[in-house]
Structure formats: structure tokens, C-alpha cells
TrEMBL record:
This is ABC transporter substrate-binding protein. It holds the Pfam family SBP_bac_8. SUPFAM superfamilies: Periplasmic binding protein-like II. It comes from Alkalicoccus urumqiensis. PANTHER family: PROTEIN YNJB. InterPro entries: SBP, YnjB.
Length: 398
């Protein structure tokens, strides 16, 4: 998934997070799940979500939409829209007092969730209403905390992924950040990363922060004193790397889609991004070359969770809850693992699955690309902002 930053602090409107159109969160809490499901039948649900990955789009259109139509009579529509655009639209609707919103579900996380929460753009606390949250979702830190932000039940985890690198035809691809930096220097023009306004590029820089810090605990929370003392070292690493990059670091891909296409065309020899399983479907489609190898850095790979939420003015909260609950179901989560579909990590507690379901998970996942012991915690969302605010001046135009 992509993440973007939007909405300066001067626009903050509060954080009460209540629905202003359909049934309120407080009223829904008084209903049984059977009553919520009955109210949802025959409704339309619109979901704002990034549309830049054909595998993700196909999963939503060919798996989720037919499933909720057949089981609940819900007409599901995926609306491709980047987070800055839909947050801006929600802000406009908030300011206009709109009570019949343009969407019912949001794909969101990190700084976007923080901005939406602080600007009162979300429905309210709903996680406890979902049976699958209690029955199947893993009891993990990401349930309560999203990049240093308390979730407060206003979003629920949808997927968990590791950052990984794809290399073309490398017999011994780099396996640590130190080796990656050396490989880039030895292979001028073979490597780059997207602009840091894009989360893939920002995520690469967050790995450099971990590399400079040495110990994840050092940067477990946003620390201005650490930034003041060590931020220059982060920029030094990136400035030293820049001359070895594609086009000598004078320009950067605008998006992961652009970098993936450059990799597919042989213009660069590496690509990167969140979701360690994403390459297989691209290989199967003939987009990535057969010799593509995915590597998770043994020096540490950031583990990232993405979420779904509901906007403050959804007109169909009951149906939105039913769709979200389905997204968390073992059936939907396991099919999401399928590399022919999305090919993405799940958020399930394996202990709650049947033997057959556990076998399905094992068949899709196979050998771990990024061992759990190599996973790094995601940084506080304020590091994302710091990178976005300073990278251009410090690295691109020093």
C-alpha cells in the first residue's frame, strides 16, 4: 500500500470522530451482529483505495466484490484514489457539513490515519463490533498502534508486509544495508529508489534511519534530540549513495509503478517495496523477468501494517462493517495470500484456523522471505514527515 502525508496542523478540527450521516457508532453498538447484517442487505458500499497495483485491483473486483454480493447482497465498488485526494475530499465534505459521504470505507494507515483522526474525518470506534476481529485477528501490537498512533478502534488491520528488494540475475544479491550500499557503488546506475513523497521511497530512507541508529530501540519513538544529533548522518549516507544511482541521483522515479517498469525494462537492476511476496504475480504475468530474486535484508526489514477505516459521513455504516468484517475473514485473508491474486501477508492468528486453512496458508507462503527475527518495527509517522520535509533540500539539491 501507499502512504502520503496531507493536511497541516493549522487545519486541525478536533478529534471526536463521530458519524454524521448513517447510524452512529454509539447506536450501532446497541445492535447485534445479526441485526447489523440484516440492515446491510441490499446496500451499496464504496471504498476509496490506491489503485496502482493490478493484482490488488483484481483481488477486490474478482474476489471480494462477488463474495459480498453473493453472501450479503451488497454492491461493492472500488474507487481508485490516492490518499491525499480522498483526505482532501473528506476535508471539503467536513467543511461543507456533508452528511451523505462519497465513500464508506478507506484504505489508510500511518500519517494519513493520524491526519484523518486529528481532523475528525473518521467514523469513530468500530473495531469491537467486528466478530472476526475477536475470533481471528492476531493479538499483535499493530492492532492498537499504527506507526506510533493510538488506533482507538477507529481502523482495523487488513494486511502485514515486510519491505523487500528485487534483483535481476544477481548470483549473490546484497543481504544487508551495508552490502546494498556497496553493491550500488559497484554497479553505477543499477539502483535507485522513488521520491520520498511516495511511501516506497520514504520507506527506503526509514531503513537508512535504522541503519544509522543501529538499535531499533533508539528510534522506537520520535526523538527530536536524536534527529538533531544524527539526522546529518542519515543525509550523509544518502548523499554518498546518490552519484551511484540511476541518472546519478539527479532525478528519482515518481512512484513504485515507475520504478517497477524501469526494472521490467532493464533500465535498473533492482526494485523494492513493501510486500515481500509481490514479485511472483508480476513474474507470472511476464512483467518481471524469470530471474528476479527477492531479498529481505538480514540487517533488518521494516514490517508495515495497513488498515481499513470508515469516514465520518458514511451513509452505509452497517454495510461498511459487514464488508470490513469479510475482509478480515480467514477465507478472504487466505485468498489474499495467493500470488495469482494479491500475494500479500495476512493478519490472522494461526491458532484460530482449521487444519485445512493452515495448510492453505503454508502452501501460499512457503519459505519465509524475511524471517521474523529480521523484522524491524515501523517508525513513528513523524519520521515520515521529517523525511518528506527535508530530503529534497538535503539530498536532491544539497
Amino acid at each position: 500500500m501507499k502512504r502520503w502525508s496531507l493536511l497541516p496542523a493549522v487545519l486541525l478540527l478536533g478529534a471526536c470522530g463521530n458519524s454524521e450521516s448513517g447510524t452512529s457508532a454509539e447506536a450501532l453498538e446497541e445492535l447485534s451482529w445479526e441485526e447489523i447484517t440484516a440492515e446491510a442487505e441490499g446496500s451499496e458500499v464504496r471504498m476509496y483505495m490506491w489503485g496502482g497495483d493490478e493484482g490488488v485491483n483484481a483481488y477486490m473486483d474478482d474476489v471480494i466484490a462477488p463474495a459480498v454480493e453473493e453472501e450479503y447482497g451488497i454492491d461493492f465498488e472500488r474507487i481508485p484514489m490516492d490518499a491525499p485526494e480522498f483526505l482532501s475530499r473528506l476535508m471539503t465534505e467536513r467543511e461543507a457539513g456533508s452528511t451523505d459521504g462519497s465513500a464508506d470505507i478507506l484504505w489508510i494507515n500511518g500519517e494519513n490515519f493520524r491526519n484523518a483522526k486529528e481532523n475528525d474525518l473518521l467514523y469513530g470506534s468500530f473495531a469491537d463490533m467486528l466478530p472476526n476481529m475477536e475470533e481471528h485477528v492476531a493479538d499483535a501490537p499493530f492492532v492498537e498502534n499504527d506507526m506510533g498512533i493510538d488506533v482507538d478502534g477507529m481502523e482495523v488491520p487488513w494486511g502485514n508486509v515486510q519491505y523487500a528488494f528485487q534483483f535481476r540475475g544477481e548470483d549473490n544479491p546484497p543481504e544487508t544495508m551495508e552490502e546494498l550500499l556497496a553493491w550500488a557503488e559497484e554497479n553505477p546506475g543499477a539502483f535507485t529508489y522513488p521520491d520520498v513523497q511516495n511511501d516506497t521511497g520514504n520507506g527506503f530512507v526509514r531503513h537508512v534511519i535504522h541503519y544509522v541508529a543501529g538499535d531499533p530501540e533508539t528510534v522506537s519513538e520520535f526523538d527530536e534530540a536524536w534527529i538533531e544529533e544524527n539526522g546529518g548522518d542519515v543525509w550523509d549516507v544518502l548523499r554518498t549513495l546518490a552519484p551511484s544511482l540511476w541518472r546519478e541521483g539527479e532525478t528519482y522515479p515518481n512512484s513504485l509503478e515507475q520504478q517497477d517498469q524501469m526494472f521490467a525494462d532493464g533500465e535498473v537492476q533492482a526494485t523494492l517495496g513493501f510486500n515481500e511476496y509481490r514479485a511472483q504475480s508480476l513474474i507470472d504475468q511476464g512483467v518481471f523477468p524469470e530471474e528476479t530474486e527477492t531479498v529481505g535484508l538480514s540487517s533488518g526489514s521494516i514490517s508495515s501494517t495497513h488498515y481499513v477505516s470508515m469516514p465520518f459521513n458514511t451513509g452505509n455504516p452497517e454495510a461498511a462493517l459487514v464488508v470490513i468484517n469479510h475482509l478480515l475473514s480467514p477465507e478472504a485473508q487466505i485468498e489474499k495470500l495467493n500470488p495469482e491474486r494479491w500475494g500479500e501477508g495476512h493478519i490472522l492468528d494461526p491458532e484460530t484456523l482449521s487444519e485445512e486453512q493452515r495448510e492453505q496458508v503454508e502452501a501460499y507462503v512457503g519459505e519465509e522471505i524475511v524471517p521474523a527475527e529480521d523484522a524491524l518495527p515501523e517508525l513513528d509517522a513523524r519520521y515520515v514527515d521529517w523525511i518528506q520535509e527535508n530530503w529534497e533540500e538535503e539530498v536532491v539539491q544539497p
